[in-house]
């Protein structure tokens, strides 16, 4: 039964699937449409579905709508678990020159970087709901918040403090990124005091 295949795929993908995923698994997109009409699925947004009654993962939804966006700054700090501050908007970084009418609707605070910086330190991380999203690694995120004059200083200091305490920190990578992003002089005193 095709519906069972859809539910199996939903279970494998932590409760959220896209039309593209379904097609890769041999499921016709019309099956998803039919399941929405019958009340078995809910359409979160164009091309993205959850089982009826389940919650959507807002991080995955935002990134699905803005595919070129990479979670960064305060949102990345939150996803990495180094801040207790819950962002009221989503920070995403895009290639310089990218624009979307969806920024305001999705509560996105966009950041723009040249391609060299945009591609630096991109990883995949699971949200608390188990969805894989693109985010900058912790070292690139720390450099970005230190570099951004709009970052709240308390948030930045807490993030650097939490970073230094982590077992998985990579100080060599952090300082390499700091040099590339021209924040080495600004970041080094914080690291030296906290180590």
From TrEMBL:
UniProt domain AbiEi antitoxin N-terminal: residue ranges: 5-50
Taxonomy, superkingdom: Bacteria
Pfam family, one: AbiEi_4
InterPro entries: AbiEi_N
Protein name as it appears in the record: Type IV toxin-antitoxin system AbiEi family antitoxin domain-containing protein
Organism of provenance: Loigolactobacillus jiayinensis
